[in-house]
Amino acid sequence: MSVSAHSAEHAETAKSAVDFSQDSALKTTALEKLNSVFGYQSFRKGQQEVIHAALNKQDSLVVMATGNGKSLCYQIPALCFSGLTLVISPLISLMKDQVDQLLTNGIAADYLNSTQTFEQQQQVQSMAMSGQLKLLYLSPEKITTQSFFHFISQCQVSFIAIDEAHCISQWGHDFRPEYTQLGGLKSCFPDAPIMALTATADETTRRDILFHLKLQTPHIYIGSFDRPNIRYMLVEKFKPMEQLCQFVLGQKGKSGIVYCNSRNKVERIAESLRKKGVAAQAYHAGMDNALRERVQRDFQRDNVQVVVATIAFGMGINKSNVRFVAHFDLPRSIEAYYQETGRAGRDDLPAEAVLFYEPADYAWLQKMLLEKPETPQRQIEQHKLQAIGEFAESQTCRRLVLLNYFGEMRQTPCNNCDICLDPPKKYNGLIDAQKVMSAVYRVGQRFGVHYVVAVLRGLQNQKIKDNGHDTLSVFGIGKDRSKEYWQSVIRQLVHLGLLRQVVDQYNSTLQLTENAKPVLRGECELELATPRISSVITRTAEKSAVVNYDKDLFARLRFLRKQIADKENIPPYIVFNDATLQEMAQYQPTTAREMLQINGVGSIKLERFAQPFMTIIREHKAAHRTDAPAFELH
């Protein structure tokens, strides 16, 4: 099955569309689990069809943005199947986090990894073999051992979920060789459907996932990559440490992550933030394991406001109330940037992603890359580095650049990024666009940016002469503009979805998209940003979020949540996340029936945690005679 690029609109009807009307029992069971166990009133876009495909024992590939509910896509089928669900994840810390949340919801789950003693692993295996577990989390390394197959052959495996599935592809931004061994799972468990999940996979990566995992007639869901609650901002570096500290202080105690590309910078930034009074800690691979675990635990439990981490090492956290992610250095790919910024705003509340940038960052990464041996893998990394460089230097809506990179072709600006909030000057770019697209067409759509620009500018180089392109009508029609000018125009046309860059292991070529036809024919207007040959500092005005809940009550509920979490020895967001507390502060439920209508309050959490929250809400209403909105069922 071909995996073509999908827009969000296509996702609903794309590949292997599922008709719930054919099996209402499955639909009812899945929805009942969503309501009673997880406390949500309805499925998010895409979840229902993915879950139904799994329950029909169909393999699937799920590409769904972070925060859109990927985990529920396999957790709900796991509760519906009679046997054990295996969840393969590359991040040990994320395994523990997921298991803690499942246990809090009353679900029998555990994990096997290198942090456990032999006796602990034996106990987990015994529970799995006796049917006491519904979900078992494992690392890909664990799956490939002979001892594992001896153990798992004694379990009733009903379903397999492979998280972070992009790791199986060399085109994926975090390729892990051990993932390539997972292709044997299909032959070992022929009756168990396999679900591969990722938040970041372009078309090439998706093809690799299907091929290497040997998925059979899979249901494919490509959701929207858009995270509208995240504001994407770029700030040109001037006094970077001072700028970063000023930004973090402006967050007024909110949780955040700062990424940078060296351990030394991690330590220096964490120290600088601490000197400014910020509760910040460093986190990188050179630290002692116990210290790293303590830092992550303190961050998850809101004892630390900011964690400063290396980009390469990552954090693998599932913390829902991260309000900002700042990149002090340029990431190595758009996939990495998207994944890392996606750790902000997982609860759908407003969040910020700020990239501090200077062209020297790109030059340094390029230099480091060129020092590697020339291999197909290096070619892939060069393409990805070029794409993130173009994102940083873009003069079009940053969200459009991200979405079009992942094949979700859009042209409407988001009004929630630095470019939209502080727009560059615009001009009628129709003639420039026609010149570029005509050149791309005349050279046969077989050459890359530099070649097309050389033709436009009329350069007399040997390759152009050998191809006879110095005789084309488009040769030299852009000689009055600089190379950088035309590169900027081409980048904008790519970002607007009018041109696409097709890259294989050795070449990059520009091709026209279907959207280019009306522009070429002059049937529409086209505004472009006046090319900025050098980076310009952008300042954005703050947009106030609509506040429709009682902030004083929300603060009291947060304080209570922290007390409960500390007593239970779990992160606060596992009790209830910020979005759930905001709903409580808005609708102010005081009975069990009303509380169950709050998203994120299931039957187990109602019984375990809800009573003191209802008590505080009653006290607050009595003291303030609040005009909260009348409670309505969702």
Automatic annotation (TrEMBL):
**Entry keyword DNA damage:** yes
Entry annotated with the keyword ATP-binding: yes
Name the coenzymes or cofactors required.
Zn(2+); Mg(2+)
Known InterPro entries for this protein? DEAD/DEAH_box_helicase_dom, DNA_helicase_ATP-dep_RecQ, DNA_helicase_ATP-dep_RecQ_bac, Helicase_ATP-bd, Helicase_C-like, HRDC-like_sf, HRDC_dom, HRDC_dom_sf
For biological process, the GO terms are: DNA recombination; DNA repair; DNA replication; SOS response
**PROSITE patterns linked:** HELICASE_ATP_BIND_1, HELICASE_CTER, HRDC
Q: Name one GO cellular component term.
A: cytoplasm
Q: Please give the superkingdom of this protein's source.
A: Bacteria
Question: Helicase C-terminal domain: from which residue to which, for each copy?
Answer: 240-388
Q: Which family does it belong to?
A: Belongs to the helicase family. RecQ subfamily.
Output this protein's name.
DNA helicase RecQ
Which species does the entry assign this protein to?
A: Caviibacterium pharyngocola
**What is the gene called?**
recQ
